[in-house]
Design brief:
Radius of gyration: 15 Å
Mean pLDDT: 90
CATH superfamily: Flavodoxin domain
CATH class: Alpha Beta
Distance between the termini: 22 Å
Number of domains: 1
Strand order of the largest sheet: 1-4-5
Number of helices: 4
Order of helices and strands: EEEHEHEHEEH
Largest sheet: 3 strands, parallel
Structural class: alpha/beta
Shape: globular
Low-confidence stretches: none
């Protein structure tokens, strides 16, 4: 799941949807395995909204396996090639995804 940030917090569209869904069942993620991501054009990589989401993950029923904030999106991702071009970020992204895959294999 990828989080967008608006003024250091969740976007109003996400917050509204999240608020209404949690009225039906507070565990909206239903114990699903998740990896949380965030990015922005700036050096913080939407770290504020990601920290908030990570902190509340278990409360809302998410089985959080990894999280990653990706700073300076336009410097680490080539939109023409549709790929990450920063080796360190790519490694961290692959590690996060592998935590999700490894957990899925254990359940099988």
């Amino acid at each position: 799941m990828s989080f967008a940030e608006h003024n250091g917090s969740h976007t109003t569209a996400y917050k509204n949807l999240f608020d209404w869904l949690s009225r039906i069942d507070i565990k909206i993620f239903q114990d699903k395995l998740v990896v949380y991501l965030s990015t922005s054009p700036g050096p913080d990589g939407a770290a504020g909204v990601l920290a908030s989401a990570v902190e509340s993950a278990s409360h809302f029923g998410a089985d959080l396996k990894a999280s990653l904030s990706i700073p300076s999106f336009h410097k680490v991702f080539d939109t023409g090639m549709n790929q990450v071009i920063n080796a360190d970020i790519e490694k961290k992204l692959r590690q996060a995804i592998s935590r999700l895959k490894d957990t899925d294999k254990l359940a099988a």
